Predict the 3D structure of the following.
Amino acid sequence: MDQQQLIADALRKVQEAEAALRALAGEAAPTSSRPVDLVDLKEAAYLTGRPISTLRKWSKKPLYGAQKHAGRWFFDREKLPPRGT
C-alpha cells in the first residue's frame, strides 16, 4: 500500500472515530452523512484534466473541499469538476 492510500485510510478512520465520539456524547451528526472520498493533488489534477498549479489555486477556495493533511493537499472527489468542463 502506498503512502497516499495510507493517508486516505487514516483520514477515513479519524472521521469514523469522530462520528463514534459524537454518538457517545449525544451530539448531532454533521449535516453531511456521506463519507468524504478524498483524492490527493496528483489524482485531482488527473481527474479534472487541470495542471497541479491550478489545483493549488483551487485549494484556497472552499468550493472544492480541499483539506491539508501532513503538508499535503487532498480534495473531495465529488466537489471536483469533471474532466473537460
Q: What stands out?
A: The chain is about 45% helix and 15% strand. The chain has one domain: 3-79.
